[in-house]
Amino acid sequence: MVADTNMDILGAGWSFPLKIDGRGGIALSRHETDIEESIRIILSTAKGERRMRPNFGCDIHNIIFAPNNATTWGLAARYVEEALGWWEPRIEVTEIDPHPDPEDTSRLLINIKYRIKATNDARNIVYPFYLIPGRV
Length: 136
What we know:
Elements (H helix, E strand, L loop, with lengths): L4 H6 L1 E3 L13 E3 H14 L25 H18 L3 E11 L2 E13 L4 E10 L6
Antiparallel strand pairs: 1-2, 3-4, 4-5
């Protein structure tokens, strides 16, 4: 069996959320699934949350109490681009489009378009970020 080197370079990692496979071991995610899970982990982790790696994560959590407006959308795009550029070297982010969810004014939908460098495969993911409405 010949290995697909483009797929091998994408790697594998523990599945997220953590699961047990059919043999009782830790389930692994591979290739594009591993990258998508990595993106979600990066964006879901607030900087400082991991004691042994305090710079890991995304600053988007700094705007959790911000209003759902254009300024917040711009900050969200910047924070997502910075975090993915630093922590996920397997991809190139090509576009980030944050916009309010028409069904929930407290939710910001962040459409992230990216290209997997090893395979030149264009993909996208929509990451929901929940804002907590504050009082002025």
